């Protein structure tokens, strides 16, 4: 990582080498934060950090595979060594489990025929990875005067929206992997918020909307920058901001 920065807020974004995470990193940097780009591929992380710096931001790459405990611990060690604290954690890294397909086409996730190894892999990244990263970073977040944690969930996480046969998400195929992993993530968000409320750490889940990224073969109708805005809003909450919430660009979302 590059030069020490003691005055700017420090934000770590997981899976920030592309897609929504990269959009979030770019926007947080534009707001004046020092952004740590978490990427499991160091080269792609460095490329993204260099692009943010070229646009005038302060960005540093760190190798971080959320399913690899050693890289998670090493990332925390590097953030501590360089910055001594963390102000914002964006748990963005995630996989659909179905490769580069849109949720509507994820036929391999239909509950009655789903492959258990795929379910395990999706939960490992989307749920257990968030616990691993959050717990590794919590000692650093506790040193911030205004710590914020944002978990990137999905509208597909909402039991209310997905169980409505006439609702806007009726077209989504039933899923035993991606959607339940994101439901678990919003549940986890509430539990972390419950534990950390007394410490002033605000923890919220967001649904970025259907964003054109590699995860859906760019079939989404929002840009990464548009999907990132709600994430950035929750990352920059004031002291009186919500915690244990679930938000989309349109406002609070039903569980
Ligand atoms: P994306 O372009 O595929 O980006 C996913 C990012 O996560 C990549 O940087 C990827 O790294 C990283 N990643 C995957 N597994 C990882 C791991 N084990 N450790 C560290 N990084 C890992 O997809 P995206 O659409 O931007 O997705 C970002 C988040 O938004 C995900 O949590 C996704 O579920 C959520 N989301 C997306 C949409 C949408 O419409 N796109 C909607 C709702 C929610 P590599 O480049 O190395 O693969």
Summarize the model shown:
The protein has 255 residues and is of the alpha/beta class. The chain contains seven helices and eight strands.
3D structure, described in words:
- This protein is α/β, with parallel strands linked by helices.
- The chain has one domain (3-252): Rossmann fold, CATH 3.40.50.720.
- It contains seven helices and eight strands; from the N terminus they run βαβαβαβαβααβαββ.
- The chain has helices at 19-30, 42-54, 69-83, 116-141, 159-162, 178-196, 224-235; strands spanning 10-13, 34-39, 58-63, 88-91, 148-152, 202-207, 246-248, 251-252.
- The chain has an eight-stranded mixed β-sheet with strand order 3-2-1-4-5-6-7-8, sandwiched between helices.
- The model has no long low-confidence stretch (mean pLDDT 94).
- Residues 14-15, 17-21, 40-41, 44, 64-67, 92-95, 125, 129, 152, 154, 207-208, 210-211, 213-216, 220 line the site of NADP nicotinamide-adenine-dinucleotide phosphate (NAP).
């Amino acid at each position: 990582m590059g030069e020490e920065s003691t005055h700017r807020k420090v934000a770590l974004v997981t899976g920030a080498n592309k897609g929504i995470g990269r959009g979030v990193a770019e926007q947080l940097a534009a707001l004046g934060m020092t952004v740590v780009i978490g990427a499991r591929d160091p080269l792609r992380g460095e490329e993204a950090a260099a692009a943010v710096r070229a646009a005038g931001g302060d960005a540093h790459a760190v190798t971080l595979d959320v399913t690899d405990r050693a890289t998670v611990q090493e990332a925390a060690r590097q953030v501590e060594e360089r910055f001594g604290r963390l102000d914002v954690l964006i748990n963005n890294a995630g996989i659909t489990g179905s490769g580069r397909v849109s949720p509507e086409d994820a036929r391999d996730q239909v509950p009655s025929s789903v492959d258990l190894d795929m379910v395990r892999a999706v939960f490992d990244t989307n749920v257990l990875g968030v616990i691993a990263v959050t717990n590794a970073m919590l000692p650093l977040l506790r040193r911030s005067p205004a710590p914020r944690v944002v978990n990137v969930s999905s509208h597909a996480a909402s039991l209310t929206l997905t169980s409505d046969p006439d609702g806007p998400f009726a077209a989504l195929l039933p899923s035993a992997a991606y959607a339940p992993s994101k439901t678990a993530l919003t549940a986890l968000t509430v539990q972390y918020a419950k534990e950390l409320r007394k410490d002033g750490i605000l923890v919220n889940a967001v649904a970025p909307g259907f964003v054109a990224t590699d995860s859906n073969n760019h079939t989404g109708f929002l840009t990464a920058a548009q999907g990132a805005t709600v994430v950035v809003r929750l990352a920059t909450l004031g002291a009186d901001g919500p915690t244990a919430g679930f938000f989309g660009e349109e406002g609070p979302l039903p569980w």
